[in-house]
Amino acid sequence: MEYPIAGILNSHTAALLPLIINKLAILVWLHFIGDFVLQSRYIADNKGRSVVVLLQHSFLYSIPFIFIDSKFAIVNGCLHFFVDLGSSKLTRRYYEREEYYQFFTVIGFDQSVHMSCLFFTYWLLVSGYL
User: From CA 22, how far away is CA 62, in angstroms rounded?
Assistant: First the structure.
């Protein structure tokens, strides 16, 4: 099978692209489960007000990632806590003020940071650094 970016990558790396894309898609879906499916209404409403509730959310968030690696789950649970420590306060403020453009901009930024953390820590894991 010929890949459009094969001119940039060597043939071995290009052949790995479907596997890499598959792994990244799994990370995205595990993130969705941890960040949204496992989050109760109570946690969603209160993680921007209470560090204890945010810790509960971060713990629940990390559960799906145990299927990849326990260290990976712990590291990403901690990273998730620190990202949400700032973003959850901002989103709560913007939502309460009905400033929905700012609210969704912060949500988008938050999700982009989470994806970047997941992809980077996964690279650390498969490279043997984690």
Answer: 20
Q: What is the mean pLDDT of the chain?
A: 92
Q: Are 106 and 87 in contact (CB under 8 A)?
A: yes
68: enclosing H helix or E strand: none
Report DSSP state, residue 34: I
- φ and ψ at 69, to 5 degrees? -175, 140
The answer, yes or no, to whether residue 5 has pLDDT greater than 60, is no
> Cα separation of 16 and 126, whole Å?
14
| Residue listed under structure tokens 């650094």 | 129
Is pTM beyond 0.85? Reply is yes
| Alpha carbon distance 80, 37 (integer Å) | 15
Answer yes or no: are the C-beta atoms of 125 and 118 closer than 8 Å. no
Closest CA to 72 of 116, 24, 126, 18: 126
pLDDT at 8: 63
Give how far Cα 98 sits from Cα of 12, 33, 84, 94, 104, Å: 51, 27, 20, 6, 11
